[in-house]
Amino acid sequence: MVASHKSMQWKLKDLLPALSVLLIGLFALAYAMLLPQGDTGQFAVLSNPWSGASQAIELVNRADAQIISFNERTNVMIVYSERPDAVQALYDAGAWLVFEPNQLSTCFDLNSPKA
């Protein structure tokens, strides 16, 4: 009563339901984690990798926001804005990604700029 080797092999179509549930769950989790709520008026902003500090400052100024913290090495900054449409304003100003800053607490070293 030994099963043949062929019947024991997994087929991709057998795994599709499980893979689809996994991918949908991962996308939903990523969406929930990255979707900025703006409860505190603070947002993490990722600008393009080749921009320097002056372009990042210009992006924030165009969105009527203020820089709280900036990591020039990764082009990630924490900004504050009182605008109700701050997320859209940051995207319109050229931000690549806007998300909740608390997601960065263990990922990057975001020091406050020195005066």
Task: Please tally the β strands and state the result.
Answer: 4
Any low-confidence stretches, pLDDT <50, length ≥5?
Answer: none
Mean pLDDT: 79
Q: Order of strands side by side in the largest beta sheet?
A: 2-3-1-4
Give the count of helical stretches: 4
Which architecture of the largest domain does the CATH hierarchy give at level 2?
Answer: 2-Layer Sandwich
CATH class of the largest domain reads Alpha Beta
Gap from first CA to last CA: 78 Å
Helix content: 25-40%
CATH topology of the largest domain: Alpha-Beta Plaits
The SSE string, one letter per element, is: HHEHEEHE
Major beta sheet summary: 4 strands, antiparallel
Gross geometry? elongated
Describe this entry's structure for a reader.
The protein is an alpha+beta fold and 115 residues long. It folds into 2 domains: 5-34; 42-104, 2-Layer Sandwich (Alpha-Beta Plaits), CATH 3.30.70. It has helices at residues 5-8, 12-34, 53-62, 86-93, and strands at residues 42-46, 66-71, 76-80, 97-99. The protein has a 4-stranded antiparallel sheet with strand order 2-3-1-4, covered by helices on one side. A hairpin with a 4-residue loop joins strand 2 (66-71) and strand 3. The protein is elongated and about 60 Å long. The mean pLDDT is 79.
In brief:
The protein is of the alpha+beta class.
Entry keywords:
Alpha-Beta Plaits, single chain, 17% strand, elongated, alpha+beta, 2 domains, 4 strands, 115 residues
Topology:
Elements: H1 5-8, H2 12-34, E1 42-46, H3 53-62, E2 66-71, E3 76-80, H4 86-93, E4 97-99
Antiparallel strand pairs: 1-3, 1-4, 2-3
